[in-house]
Design goal:
Elements (H helix, E strand, L loop, with lengths): L2 E8 L2 H13 L5 E4 L3 E7 L2 E15 L3 H11 L8 E4 L5 H10 L8
Length: about 110
């Protein structure tokens, strides 16, 4: 098993809180950091867009990534939510062990 850092932007604090609490409660994530708002500039359906978004940093394991991605898609209000998983290149072994202990392979939406 490997630790992943998943990045996902959401439109507001209510969605951020609901997503973070659900992912941790369902053991799809060990921890979700809710960062301060940021400005995002992107192209959507041929138009240049600008939005205030809240970035989430989600710590999980590769073994539950598919279930985590599916759950984010179910709960996220965007048609195409940003869901980017980055493998952990290095990190505290104690922290990695904690992440692994907090997520399970038999998780999923109840």
């Amino acid at each position: 098993m490997k630790v992943l850092l998943v990045v996902c932007n959401v439109p507001d604090a209510m969605v951020a809180d609901r997503l973070a609490e659900t992912l941790v409660a369902e053991r799809l994530a060990a921890c979700v950091n809710i960062l301060p708002e940021c400005d995002s500039v992107y192209r959507w359906q041929g138009q240049l867009e600008r939005a205030r978004e809240i970035p989430l940093l989600i710590k999980t394991a590769d073994t539950v990534y598919a279930a985590l991605e599916q759950r984010i898609q179910e709960l996220h209000p965007y048609d195409v939510p940003e869901i980017i998983a980055l493998p952990l290149a290095a990190g505290s072994m104690a922290y990695q062990q904690w992440v692994m202990a907090e997520v399970t392979t038999d998780c999923g939406a109840s």
